Amino acid sequence: MLKWKRFRDRSIRQKMFLTYALLMIIPLLVISISFYTYAMSIFETRIVKSFEETNLQMISTADAFVNSMIKSSEQPFYDENLMTILAKDYSKSAYETFEKSMDFRYISDSVFKNLMTFNPSIDSILIYPENSPLIYRRGYNTTFNYKYTPVHEAWYQQIINNMEKPVLLGLHEEKQMYSKPRRVLSVGRVLVDADSYQKLGVLLVNFRVEQLEQLFSGLDNKRDVNQFIVDEKGTVIFSTTPGMMGTNLIQPLSQIQPNSKDYYVVRHESKVSGWQFYSVIHRNQLFAEINKLRDFTVLLFVLLVAIGFIIAFLVSGSISNPIRRLNRLMRKVEKGNFNVVAHQDSLDEVGHLSRTFNRMTGEIKELIEQIKLEEKKKRSAELNALQNQINPHFIYNTLSVIKWMAQAQMADNITEAIDDMIKVLSFSTRSTQEFVSIKEEMEFIRNYVELLQLRYYSVFDCKIDVAPDVMHYRTLKFMVQPFVENAVFHAFVSHDRPYELYICVGKTDGDDIQFIIRDNGIGIRQEQLHHLLQQEWSDKETMNSIGIGNVSRRLKLHYGEKYGVAMESTVGEGTSVCIRIPAMEQDPTSIQPRKEGLI
Question: Distance between CA 548 and CA 537 in Å, rounded?
């Protein structure tokens, strides 16, 4: 732990030099030691992969040969004349000898000859009839053995047990067609009557084992590799090493111990024939040349160690020097000097860090100046807000005095007007909250409408209908007033008819709250209606500066795009405004008591 702390407290150049030494020199030692093993492993992998591919090619070639053997055994199976001959009972024939001779000639000269012409690899063909002791045969250079019968042979019983399926027989001795047994590969199958499924005989097609040697003649006998094929019984049916043919698998592999370092065995199995394909590789002979790499590895290690020390010293200095200079500049910035500039023209990370440092110090200077300017503006805005707050309060208190004077002089109309004005000003100035209850909003609208009726000599009538069950829900402050003001100021302009203003508040079917402001004024053209919906601020002569577009924007901002303002108007008939908001309970803590008198 102490050594680590000492390393942590060293200079960056020392750390980088030691790091480069660890990352370059020590790995070189490991690489040099493991290079020999790795190179042998790569070489071994490629050699083994090469022999795996050779095995797969051998399997493909052998499978094609086996498929041709099986295909050759299928043709007699579908020959109807052959099946008729095999089903005959010669004891009932008047000319038994003549008929047997004709049938033998047909089978030998037609069936067997055509089959051997179709597949020249066939050495001989035999059919053992079920109903006759006669054996049908044909072959090359054969001498028929009349004393031999295959009935008790294991391969014959294997064919009988598999019935209609062809049976591939590995290396075995053919004793029927030759005076001396000959090694052959065979395909056998039971011939069955298609109608009665009666067994008619056994077909045996023999192939010379030399055919495999011809197929794999390209595989030369190599001193370091032995390739061979064994059948399902473990008998070697092909080998690149002379003398292994016909031996058991145990014998060629007896010298190979489990996990032996002297051999590598590549084994594959054919799914068609079930034969095993082996490639046994002698490691010591195959990898002898790669041992020469050891001397080169030692020399390479010594050279790379020397180069590593030089590179570590140069690279650590080239990286640490600009960082030390940048560190000195940052210490100056830490003391409050933001006029420093890092001079670094490189395009690497250190150069990018230097340019970022310059931009950072410049932005910090700008932010400091901006903060100072914003603080000045903030103090000015607070002063203006305080002054603007004094004026409405002063008007509110002055109107209260005038109201008491009007009551003393029994001027009821003036009293009512001043009382409405006081309530309007009280609603406007008593709270800075953005939300109020629907009850408060509509009381404000009633007082505001009464003031408008007084101002315009009752040129319009107003009806306000608010459902009692929505009084306690909250709404935006000054949400309805701009629409009422717009209707009175712009819709009721002539005196040729009585004007009416209708305000309704209630719940919708979807449990939302809906405000309806409808008038029978002069109406608004469509292009003016669109402009009105975009209006952010009202005229200076209005009660407040909140425009209709501002209300619509505030609704969408607080409640989402689903809610807002919808306006319909017909020129000469009037305008209808629909405001839709969600039903939200008013927070009791946000309700402030109404105060009379000084604020």
Answer: 8
Average pLDDT for residues 464-477, to the nearest whole number?
A: 91
> Count of CB atoms within 10 A of residue 175's CB?
16
H or E element: which one contains 264? Answer: strand 263-269
Of all residues in the chain, what percent carry a pLDDT higher than 70? Answer: 78
Question: Of 421, 429, 417, which Cα lies nearest the Cα of 392?
Answer: 429
Instruction: Say what percent of the chain tops pLDDT 90.
Output: 8
Is the distance from CB of 341 to CB of 355 less than 8 angstroms? no
159-173, 333-347, 472-486: least confidently modelled range: 333-347
Do 174 and 182 form a contact (C-beta atoms < 8 A)? yes
Q: Which of 510, 493, 489, 497 is nearest to 580 (CA)?
A: 510
Q: Is 63 exposed, middle or buried (0-12, 13-18, 19+ CB in 10 A)?
A: middle
Can you give the three-state secondary structure of 313-348, one letter per residue? Answer: HHHHHHHHHHHHHHHHHHHHHHCCCCCCCCCCCCCC
Higher-confidence residue of 388 and 303: namely: 303
Backbone angles phi, psi at 188, to 5 degrees: -125, 150
Q: Checking DSSP bridges between strand 167-174 and strand 182-192, what pairing results, if any? A: antiparallel
pLDDT at 39 over 60: yes
Give CA angle at 146 (145, 152), nearest 5°. Answer: 90
What are the angstrom distances between the C-alpha of 447 and each of 119, 291, 421? Answer: 115, 107, 7
| 459, pLDDT greater than 60 | yes
Q: State the amino acid at position 47 in one-letter form.
A: I
